[in-house]
Amino acid sequence: MEARCVILDIGGVLEITPPTGWMQRWDEGLGLPAGSVDQQLDDVWQAGAIGTISVTEVRAEVGARLGLDAMQVETFMADLWTEYLGTPNVELIAYVRGLRSRCWLGILSNSFVGAREMETAKYQFDELVEEIVYSHEIGVCKPDPRAFDMTCARLEVRPADCLFIDDYDVNIEAARAAGMQAHLFAGNEQTIARIAAHLDGAASLDSPHEAI
């Protein structure tokens, strides 16, 4: 297998995750000002992203802070995961699946506690790549450089051999600072072409003005 490596984000790349408006609906249903639910749970979201809170504790905090009973909490969590998981980016997933014999494949995702179980059950990403690195499991989120270092270490690859795909500029910039090549996801056609160029050993297309 070649040393080249492709590392992908999940939300907004492998998953299509448009806003569903679920928190706004909870604001309205609870008679709260717009943004209240998100604000009241801000520290819970942050803790869940770096794994300092369990799924059970998330449910308890949601119930206590919003005054919800057990059934309402389950409905709230179902709404959360519906937006979080979105729908599969079928074309890109199929393309990546076909790369298994050509390169190392990894995922680096800013995540939420419980994401591995939910995404494995729905999308089997564990069968798509060699390593999945979740922020809630490593305790740091992109664009922290440690996230990129840990991902390369787990895949046993050099940053220079990696192409990182993400849908946020700040993470693309961080990946490049970590020594990776990087591509800002803006659609499947250009992303697939960029991956193909990387695997074919084309000269780096990375620049602050890379066409996307």
Automatic annotation (TrEMBL):
Annotated source species: Streptomyces sp. 900105755
Record's protein name: HAD family phosphatase
CDD domains from the xrefs? HAD_sEH-N_like (cd02603)
Q: Where is the signal peptide?
A: none
UniProt xrefs under PANTHER family: ALPHA-D-GLUCOSE 1-PHOSPHATE PHOSPHATASE (PTHR43611), FLAVIN MONONUCLEOTIDE HYDROLASE 1, CHLOROPLATIC (PTHR43611:SF3)
